[in-house]
């Protein structure tokens, strides 16, 4: 039951954020601030929860190679998505959330096996903190282009369903997979996160919110660090 509740909360944040971005009153400055805050949370998640465990437990060369592979894969996917939907579209951010979210939610599902309530709160909280503002900003940009609001909303609902399925697969199917291989999956996700921060998150935020981006990023980072301490 805890697994289902966490999956609904984390993936539901994508839908709630998308509805807010499409139909709500979200100013450009607030959008930039929220996206930067999400970037700070993602930075913590990438380093502490996705990459660092493998550096401590796995082969360092393979770990770093997987991080690089994730970054290269996201960069190529982001390029293709922008070519299709236009350089100013939120589609790149949707690709970032999907590419990062699948292995991240696989890891979330595995982490829920036998986890304490505080550990669950730390991991799911950091993901939720990044999903909500990212979905709001990305959906708003996509709806401002040639896409209909209904089409954009269904794209985000579909993404939420995919990520929910990934978490459930992680919880029920990958329970017996060795920690070594799970760590490599997380590292691939971490590389994708780093690339998405450089290409999508921080440039977008600075364009809309200018120098408040630094403050917002730090707020997200501090909140995510605090959530991470709850799981220790």
UniProtKB/TrEMBL annotation:
The keyword Membrane applies. Signal peptide: none annotated. Keywords: Membrane, Transmembrane, Transmembrane helix. The chain crosses the membrane at residues 31-50, 62-81, 106-132, 153-175, 181-199, 211-229. It comes from the Bacteria. This is Zinc transporter. It comes from Pricia antarctica.
